[in-house]
Amino acid sequence: MRKLLVAGVGVAVIVGALALTSFRPSTAQQQAKKPDADSVVAPRLTVADSGQLKGPKQPIFFRHDIHSGQYKIQCQYCHYSVADAAEPGIPTLQTCMGCHLAIGGSDSTHRVEIKKVRDAWRQKRPVEWVRIHTLAKHAHFPHMRHLKAMGPNACATCHGDVARMPQVFKVNNVNNMGFCISCHVERKVNRDCTACHY
Amino acid sequence: MTATTHDPSRPAMTHAEVTRDIVNTLRTPSRGYYMALFAAIGMFLIGAATFVALLKEGLGLAGYNPPVFWSVYITTFVFWVGIGHAGTLISAILFLFRSPWRTAVYRSTEAMTVFAVMTAGLFPIIHIGRQWIFYWLLPYPNQRWLWPNFKSPLIWDVFAISTYLTVSTTFLVVGLVPDIAAVRDKMTGWRKKLYGALSIGWTGADSQWRHYSRGYLYLAALATPLVLSVHSVVSWDFAMSVIPGWHGTIFAPYFVAGAIYSGIGMVLTLVIPLRRVLKIEHMITEYHFDNLAKLTLLTGTILFYAYGMEYFVAWYSGNTFEQETFWRRAFGPQWWSGWTMIICNAFVSQLLWFRKIRRNLTSLFVISIFINIGMWFERYVIITSSLSNDFLPFAWGQMNPTWADWGILVGSFGWFGMYFLLFARTFPVVAIQEIKEMIPMPRRKGGAH
Amino acid sequence: MSAPNESLDRRRFLKVVGITGAGTAALSGCSTDQVEKLIPYLVQSQDQVPSLPTIYASTCTECAAGCGLHVKTREARAIKLEGNPDHPVNAGTLCSRGQAALQGLYNPDRVAGPRGRNAAGKLTEILWNEAIDQLAAAVKAAGNRVAVISGAGAGTFDDLLSQWVAAVGGKLVRYQAFGHEPVRLASRKVFGADELPIHDFSQAKYILSFGADFLETWLAPVENQRGFANAHGFDGSGMAKFVYVGPRMSLTGINADQWVAPNPGSEASLALGLANAVLNTRTDVPADAAVLKPMLAEYGLDRVAADTGLAPVQIRQLFDEFASVGPSLVMAGGVGLQHRGAADLCAAVNILNYVAGNVGRSVKFGGGVTTGDGYGALLDLERSMAAGEIDVLIVHEANPLYSVPKQGGFRSAFEKVKLTVSTSLFFDDTAAASDLLMPNLHSLERWDDARPRAGVRGLLQPVMEPVFKGAATGDVLLQVAKKVGGALAGFSAPTYEAHLKSVWADLGRARGATDLEAFWRGALAKGGIFEPAPAAPPVRLAATAGEVSGAKPALDGDGEFIFSPYPSSMYHDGRGANRPWLLENPDPVTKITWQSWVELHPETARELDVREGEFVRLTSPAGSVEAAVYVYPGIRRDVVAMPLGLGHLENGRFAKGRGVNALDAIGAADGQGFLPYLSTRVKLEKTGHYRKVAKTEGNPRELGRGITEAMPLAAAVKGLTVKQAYEAAGHPSHEINTELEVEAIEGFRESQLEKRKLGAYALTEPQWGMAIDLGRCTGCSACVTACYAENNIPYVGEEEVLRGRELSWMRIERYFEGGDDGRPISARVIPMLCQHCDNAPCEPVCPVYAAYHTPDGLNGQVYNRCVGTRYCANNCPYKVRYFNWYAYAKKAFPEPLNLQLNPDVTVRARGIMEKCTFCVQRIRGAQHQARLEDRGLRDGDVITACAQACPSGAITFGDMTNPDHRVVKAAKNHRGYHVLEEVNVRPAVTYLAKVVPGSEA
């Protein structure tokens, strides 16, 4: 049935297409824009360290500081729907394997983690990440509107400089209404309750 | 004033007797007292249990039946706020007017006021849908950058009630100080310690008396406007709305009169048995009840007028909605409640034109019960019958109370009674010092002995 | 065939994504700091982006009409059904039953997988291959002693099924409970055309219905309603008059401008009388109609008056009107008026249409619409079952053990069959009695197509993973064929999907499509292929046309009342009884929910001394039923009526034992090819037992409050306003403000606008508004269901409805007019929802700003801020605010019903107020999209759920500050008025007064 479902596209093909195509060009131009100053080389850490690091321990010691910081992969490459939808989109294992089919890891500590990804892919078992930024269910946060307004580097405003985090942790309590409001007041943008609450 | 003609406001007894009799009220109580106390506590527990059920299940347990979104709880809330008003009236206004008869009863009425308002204060919390966040009604700085809506009569309510509670409590406590001191000197053991602390070093020195009486006077002056303001604000909970039967300009005075009426009704209900239980009949006499009854008659008559005026306005306005509402109040499905209110308040109070009835405690007690019932029903009628049939006939509906409504109602009486009884045992229910002031100075006549 | 793959059940973990990602069923106000898991897709889905809707085109199977669907899915779960705008039948709108298909899909009481009888005779879980083997073996053994009862409409599956049955030499009975056989029989008799006509309201100037409830269940209700609204709604110049003939005012009846109630059974006589009148007065009568002259001549005024018991003057008026006004449209054959003479009545109506020149214009043949072989065929099968000639019986998309009156022998015959197989999705009365349950997939889970009429081929496609372990019956047939071999060896298709695709490939070739894949995908995206019906030769009178009799049909029993079981617009033939939305959505006429009732005329009630809610027992020769009385002025004095569809013995938690089955009081005997519903007289007696009727109505009368305004056609044509119309008619218009008051109000308004000039409220945002045309609204309540579906409104159940606690944000108020004051009884309906007042009384009284005015003119309700003082609800003049007295949402969505919840709308917790938001989530969504595309909002970007669903297009929504939004024009219409204008709350909803023919409102 799943195959049939994918075949049964209907009207949605357009929507889907939009979602898939729209970020590619933006990625390109951002790479152009990004100044070289903040180029970093991520520190060498083993999974053992992840316990000491800030933030919850994840099933796989995924290094944002390597992917986003050192290799400057755009957030939207993995968080694919962030520019088009309210939800940012959690990368599918397929996305990971897109690179890690070939890239096995430069040193032992990396190889261990990448193996986990490959195993998961082989066993068709999705990775269960621990959620860090959670919003009350009665608050609707449209990611795309914030990207539209603040540009592709908007992410850091709420999520902090993830590019320098070996392990992601909560910088701002995004679930505090005050956090949203203060920003909206500063920028003189919509403060109507029903902008988020409905 | 001369002693030749005996002034009924002045008890014929000596200072020593007064202190003795009052202090006696604080000694080991009768079995009757304990039965009353346990009854009150039992009733309170019923209410508490009901509240827990409401918290657990939701307000659905009560007999709400849209469009009747307010019913027994708000009714009882207004009822208790109203009760409060007699206290401040008697202790503050009559004090300023120097009317002598208040002295014997003002202490108990003040206590009643405080406890009544304490009771009323619970209802805004009980009746809301999410009781656990009732504090959102208070203005306090928060990370959400949110404030309450100061345009809402409900917020005015919050302020009115809290102010009233504060002021009337202060009034009661300050009034108590000299008496507690007097009692302290007659007591021994832990009680002496307790009263010692409460009497905050009162010695009865002239300087203390001078400041005290000034202070008391100003407090009375402060409290006086509240008698009018608080219940006006409560009345605006309704008068500010667009609902036919609520949207009335006479509501404020109408409610204040009703409040005092119900308050004095409750005073009678409480004091008549109390004076017997505490054996102070010779201090609170027919004379005092006569005056209370006159006040009742006055306010009752104002209510009579207000009821008539409501119907007149409804008819005269030519507004179909108003007319329908008031027609249904008298002849609609809830006619019985409408008539209960009119008979108990407008008609029964008129009996007090007769001196006999005013001075017969039995009849007064019966009447006071009628008043309590009538005033509860007045609020019930105003609230539920107006809501049950407003603008769109399709949306009409009648409410029918459930055990949850009665549970909370009973509980509120228990909660109130509990405090009042404990107070009567622990503190002088009659103001020793002021009674003493009333006693004529013993004077010497040449060779009288 | 697909049993869901256990190793990776995509639906199940998408549900998790749904809950963590999109926040489906979270109760507002609850803590969110618990540890949550984020579980991504394994493989990038091509057509699903989290938090963006994906829409699939499909076809509705809830009745024979075959409307087109747009299925809105989120995170691969269907969350809303809407009409397919491209579909010729429903043109983008959908009825309540259609929308409630979603609650069939997610129904917690669906048969979760194949079941078989164990040694003890209990139904127990078995595996699909076991089920297939069992059926195959039985079919092999049975030879030609196989029978199938199928309710499936025309389409590829039906073709496959008939080939399959033919191959084994078995019997196939296409049976639909509401088959409208009389209509078909009449077409055969009068025109020799073996089909049901298609009705075109567009040109009709005079609409006449003989008990045809075309707004509820008759043929294609959505299409009918659209046509009816177009013809009967006031278009600025005129409107059609609609006369309803029948013993009881149904939903269709209350929309009539005139209700005529002749003696039940005498309608044919009236129809023939009308035909005679036309024949005598009109000159443009078809020539060949002359042969009917002698037959029609009998039906003069006197004969008709004698038969119908109507006043001659009224009959004369009908004769004259009908003969003079044209073109017209006459309909008959509703289930509610299906007496033994129904076929004759329909034939008489055919003749009437023919002589009036409607055939070919408003009544079109050649559509090839059929609704199965009918009740007669079913009874034939019953006989052979009883005779033990059937060994295997497969029941598909039918529930005969419920829909055939118990008095007949169907159940005993059914039990005589060696192996009875049910493919029902639900554990209905038939399934419960069957030996083998092979649950079909829901129409939203499987491949199929539908051919409701010539030129229309709708496609069904799976929009999501199956919720339960069903299997498409098409696949089952093919699997069995493989196992049996022999006569069935011919069925070689690997799966039903493959078979369907091959059929469509042929369709593509026939249409000269070069790229068949593109043709297929195009059809899928569009929802099927929609072509004009092939031109059919005009029908002519058949030889048998003259053999129509207007004689009164016989009635069983000798009770003093005639019993009329009528189809409920919610429950249909009973299939709606397990859908809480339909149970809670009040009956459009009586406003009763969750219950069965008996309708009595007020005078009848007085004679019997029964009040509403008292139980009465109806006893007929066939049996007896008991139900609570509802006193209804819109029914003949000698008739008692009861809705069909409730009183199931099984069929899940919602339907089981709810209400009573009106069929228990009528016989099962054949009425020449159909079940005569109106065929018995009943005795009435009080039972002494009382139960409050769970209706949402407080008071049935308006009390002159001018809530639903209406104006005479004459005034409307002149372009008068409501007030002017009143004055023109010499009536004082209700409650007008005096000059002074108006002045004061205007001044107040000015000062308000002055104050508004500052800040966010300076009218820089759009100001949302709505216009509702009461001339088009029929009260069908499709908008109510749409609102429930879109806004996650929980149903509260019978007990809470009794306390008036239903949460119906959109409600249809129904007010009766006349009846007691000499004027004929009539009814008016008005949709009542939050009016989003500019000067809203609910806003200032909220102590915490939970109710407040948004810059874009909405009356905002912030659930998570609400503390539940309920002052807003008290102060709302329209009483459109609803309170969560309990945690309704926790109870209302038992797994898997919760999968239907709309992730864009917060599910309300206990203790808070809720109300219509003008679908703010849709507004915000549209604004997001517009912003992403760097453009402003266009008209039509935002359509509220109610406006979208409304089959009569009565509701327009848009920005009142933008002159090119249609709503602005609509609101400016001279018929426009505000309910309770005198309260001066400045509503954003404008109602357009209803228009009634003639010069008197």
Report on the structure:
The complex is a heterotrimer of chains A (198), B (449) and C (1001). Chain A has 198 residues and is mostly helical. The two termini of chain A are 35 Å apart. The radius of gyration of chain A is 18 Å and the shape is elongated. Chain A is 43% helix and 1% strand. In chain B, helix 3 (72-96) packs across helix 8. Chain C has 1001 residues and is of the alpha/beta class. In chain C, helix 19 (496-510) crosses helix 20 (516-526). The longest helix of chain C has 18 residues, at 739-756. Residues 1-33 of chain C have low confidence and may be disordered. Chains in contact: A-B, A-C, B-C.
Descriptors for this entry?
A: 198 residues; 43% helix; 1% strand; C: 1001 residues; alpha/beta; 7-stranded mixed beta sheet; 6-stranded mixed beta sheet; 30% helix; 18% strand; globular; disordered N terminus
Short overview:
The complex is a heterotrimer of chains A (198), B (449) and C (1001). With 198 residues, chain A is mostly helical. Helix content of chain A is 43%, strand content 1%.
Overall 3D form of chain A: elongated
Alpha plus pi helix count of chain A: 9
Summarize the helix and strand pattern of chain A as letters.
HHHHHHEHHH
For the largest beta-sheet of chain A, the strand count, sense and barrel status come to: none
Mean pLDDT of chain C: 91
What is the number of helices of chain C? Answer: 34
Number of strands of chain C: 38
| Residue share in helix of chain C | 25-40%
Regions with little confidence, pLDDT below 50 for 5+ residues of chain C: 1-33
Strand content of chain C: 15-25%
Poorly predicted spans of chain A? 1-37
- Would you tell me the overall average pLDDT of chain A? 80
Helix vs. strand class of chain C: alpha/beta
**Assembly state of the chains shown:** heterotrimer
Largest interface: A-C, 55 and 78 residues
N- to C-terminal separation of chain A? 35 Å
Rg of chain A: 18 Å
